[in-house]
Amino acid sequence: MKYYGLRNQGATCYLNSILQALFMTREFREAVKSCSKHHKDDINVQLNTLFESLKKKTSETTEVTKTLRIEKVYEQQDAGQYLEKILSDVSDEASEIFKGELIHRTVCDQCGSHTDDEVPFFFLSLPLMDSKNGNYSVEDGIQEFLKDVEFCGEDQMYCDECKYKCDTTVKYKLKLHPEILILLLKRFEYNYHRMSYSKDSRAVDVCYTIDLPENQTYELYALVEHFGSLTGGHYTAIIKSEDEDRWYEFNDSSVTLLSDHRIQRKFENFTVYHKLTSHSFYTRSRSAHLLFYRKKSK
Ligand SMILES: [Zn+2]
């Protein structure tokens, strides 16, 4: 299959990158197609029209930006924010593919009683930190995300059983593993000292295969990268084609098949490690921002 690009309307590379990742997610493309039959002029229809066009030619996103009420096409926006908007707007059938569920368990350290809150998510926002033992990886980020949080001292929480404020632990557990797991590396953070957003360009090891608790394995098939500064930067996407197991780079209207040599450059140590174990296939990246992983059947 030949792939086509999306024309940039000014600074809409953030949108183009996530649209290509969604287009290359077969389950999503099919869900949007079946839903667009029942609805008339909503986001499902616009996406389906765009996806049908993308199968044949370089395409325009003007109808999609209109539906998403993006007026300032010359202003760069946050890709994660618009991905969330699209997934919230499409039919449940289409968004379900990405929907996972976390349990937030609040445990009183005093009496041991607990309450559970179910929290649905479309993606997990992973904090970027310095790793104690060398390189920080996506798996470190997941561990950090799911780490117990203690509320002591001034942060104590009221316990319904004890009837007073106690030291409390909040535990996180994945209840529902989504078909497609999206991870967002938090590169854009508000800096309270500078009173503005800044970009964190530290290197992160993006593993090709990750294991989540409950013994669930996921495989990387798309990553959206952000290059350059916070406001004037550029987004592109690298996506693996499901039919042919080859990686393509989507950069607005241009789509390039990545040669082995370029994949090697993109994914550091690809050949060496890939031969040993697919687990160790990773890319050390300062630009990776959104990662799409597909659940592996057990
Ligand atoms: Zn208690």
UniProtKB/TrEMBL annotation:
Q: Name one GO molecular function term.
A: cysteine-type deubiquitinase activity
GO BP annotations of the record are:
protein deubiquitination
Gene Ontology CC entries for this record? cytosol; nucleus
For this protein, the record's Pfam families field holds: UCH (PF00443)
Domain USP stretches? 4-296
Q: Which InterPro entries match?
A: Papain-like_cys_pep_sf (IPR038765), Peptidase_C19 (IPR050164), Peptidase_C19_UCH (IPR001394), USP (IPR028889), USP_CS (IPR018200)
What domain of life does the native source organism fall in? Eukaryota
Name listed for the protein in its UniProt record: USP domain-containing protein
> Which lineage?
Eukaryota, Metazoa, Chordata, Craniata, Vertebrata
